[in-house]
Amino acid sequence: MKNSKFILSMLCLFVYLQGYAQDRKNDIAPIYTKELKKIANKKKVKRAFEIIDAIDDQTIEDMIELTEVIAPPFKEAERALVFKKMIEAAGADKVWIDEIGNVLALRKGKTGKKLIGLDAHLDVVFPEGTDVNVRKVGDTLKAPGIGDDTRGLSMVIAVLKAFNKAEIVTNNDILFVGSVGEEGLGDLRGMKYLFNESDLKIDSWISIDGGSLGRINNAALGSKRYKVILTSKGGHSWGSFGLANPHHALGKAIDEFSAVASEFTKKGARTSFNIGVIGGGTSVNSIPFESWMEVDMRSVSAQRLDSIELLFKTSINKAVNDYNATDIKDKVTIEFKKIGDRPSGEISPSTPLIQRAMAATEFFGAKPRLTIGSTNASIPIALNIPAICIGRGGKGGGAHSLDEWFINENGAEAIKLAFLITLSEAEFAN
């Protein structure tokens, strides 16, 4: 009995400590609160905040101008040139467009021992031909892409202006970036190039993309995306009746995968799957020669993501093989084409960058919230490089829709937050 009571007591203590640890997960070490307050109260930093307020109207004009240049993934070049012109006017030691299309502006520090990145992405989800003219309705700006992530681009420019106009010197170098390929099939190609292929050695990264003041994305939501293509000979619906039909096989494949994936996602770390696009066929009276679908799978766990990917391929193969084993003529063949691969990962809340971001957020009167998402920060996070994604501030909605809108309500506060976090990482020199 005594042993049972002791074990029960230990279990209760363990549960309590676990809850206590979770409650303290977002705690800010006093040293960082003190550090951020000290930096924020410096004369030049206060001047930088005043500058951000003073140029707020121009920041909005920059946002509007950039919004009205459409930039789908893989077609960001025109907007990149507009952004490059703006960032050059803001002032930097070197501005260039790299091989993949990212716009980069380097502001050198006193020692240059580290390189700190601040970015927003150039691309939007909308195709060429979309009407992106900005409409003003009272205090509301309406246009596809007005927030995601054109607002972020204008914030990056404003932060650079504040550094220069306030004549702030940092110890470390800062890289101001307009990146390509964040959305959809862009598959974070701008970030993958910077961190895996370029000659730059980046020590920490701050992305601006989505969310209100207080959101700090320190964990990467991994995803794997496939286009599955089923093919056969095709033919006339009457004259070739009985011939293998890729659409019929695809229907069986979707049913098989959905059934097993639904069971898989009921337990364990949160995991999702979605069949988002289906296509193929030429006419109602033709047996299609091709049928395809695009599939998205996500998980907070890299292991679970690998597991559902294997389950996906296994179930599709099984369904098509079962279909081919029926009394149809000819066969359906399968091609798995990977169209997206975003990694999982997490940066510990105790990391200095995360601590500084939380302390800076509290300084501006907001409650810091650590979140998980699929953003430009995902690539450095997966490489265990300190990285976060913070919100654009203001008020907005309708992201990824034609009815996207933005209201510049206290929008300058989010710019000041991005400035303060960047400055704290780059180390104030004078």
Largest sheet: 9 strands, mixed
Mean pLDDT: 94
Q: Tally the helices: what do you get?
A: 12
What low-confidence regions span 5 or more consecutive residues with pLDDT below 50? 1-24
Give the SSE map:
Blueprint: H1 2-23, H2 30-40, H3 43-54, H4 56-67, H5 77-90, E1 94-97, E2 103-107, E3 115-121, E4 135-137, E5 140-142, H6 150-165, E6 173-179, H7 189-196, E7 204-208, E8 215-220, E9 222-231, E10 235-236, H8 246-264, E11 271-280, E12 286-287, E13 290-299, H9 302-324, E14 333-342, E15 345-346, H10 352-363, E16 369-373, H11 378-382, E17 387-390, E18 395-397, E19 405-407, H12 411-426
Parallel strand pairs: 3-6, 3-7, 7-17, 8-16
Antiparallel strand pairs: 1-2, 2-6, 4-5, 5-19, 8-15, 8-17, 9-13, 9-14, 10-12, 11-13, 18-19
Helix pairs in contact: 2-10, 3-6, 3-12, 4-6, 5-6, 6-12, 8-9, 10-12
Summed up:
This protein is α+β, with helices and mostly antiparallel strands.
Architecture overview:
By secondary structure, the protein is of the alpha+beta class. The chain has 2 domains: 275 residues, Aminopeptidase (3-Layer(aba) Sandwich); 121 residues, Alpha-Beta Plaits (2-Layer Sandwich). The protein contains 12 helices and 19 strands. Strands 1, 2, 3, 6, 7, 8, 15, 16 and 17 form a 9-stranded mixed beta sheet that branches. Strands 4-5-19-18 form a 4-stranded antiparallel beta sheet, with no helix packed on it. Strands 11-13-9-14 form a 4-stranded antiparallel beta sheet, with helices on one face. Strand 4 and strand 5 form a beta hairpin. The radius of gyration is 25 Å and the shape is elongated. 44% of the residues are buried. The N terminus is likely disordered.
